[in-house]
């Protein structure tokens, strides 16, 4: 991916647009009627962090503009979607949320955790008398169906509540990057490169909001919750060398001991596809997947050290932005994203043509 500059934060939000997020990053799913003074609720989905989170920044901007309090809510998906994950993924998810809840408490930001699924979100919104529900974005079918159900509930039972969705996961919002399913990385790369300077900007500080004075979150027995959820999942054991959470994610990116950009970036361009050289990889995948770190933050920091290893940084940005966000493009525009019938014809043909190829190495 060609070099691009890093822009300063966008102009401070004003009365006409109180959100710090780029306007095209936000979609109004339901305009509502607006309840002056009602709290803003951020429904956290796959961007499980407090720092560098455009969805949280948008929610806080709305709350600050209306002198309203702000809350964060997270709902564990029920079976089968949640438990299609293994113990390793679920443990990482829940231990990361445990750290996030502690960080939120330190900021006097209420964090509501629900174990009964997304259906609990509209009930919370109604109890709190919220004015706006802000959700982050996922292209996956179960999440989109859950959002549709929540919006449908609010339209029936609380039509005055506005619902916004913010793509806080991609550097370039998925609906802005392209209006269609892209044929290849080549076609997608050209579109993303043209607008990269507009979106690859520094994050502003989280706007200050009024203190929370509503219903308090129930206490969570994290040890019991983690034990219960993991016991119901398939037994792929957790690992102890990959710590979850925002702090661990930043350490993996920028740590003085073994950070990817500080210690290992130089070999990325030549060795990242060699399975015998795992240290050439970034090690950021679990943190990006669960939203413990922003891809935009990774890109911003990579740009700062490009002069030290231009080819490796460019290769990293290609994987981080183009290839990774192309996957979101595919899932967003292809309803059959989880079936071979949804793949491009050239992809299916390639698989068939090489199905009988002898492999030098076979991995399990």
TrEMBL record:
GO BP annotations listed: nucleobase-containing compound metabolic process
Alphabetic keyword roster: Membrane, Transmembrane, Transmembrane helix
Biased composition (Pro residues): 1-21
Transmembrane segments: 54-77
Domain Photolyase/cryptochrome alpha/beta: 38-171
Keyword Transmembrane helix recorded: yes
InterPro entries associated with the record: Crypto/Photolyase_FAD-like_sf, Crypto/Photolyase_N_sf, DNA_photolyase_2_CS, DNA_photolyase_N, Photolyase_Class-2, Rossmann-like_a/b/a_fold
Residue segments, region Disordered: 1-33
The protein, known as: Os10g0167600 protein
Origin species: Oryza sativa subsp. japonica
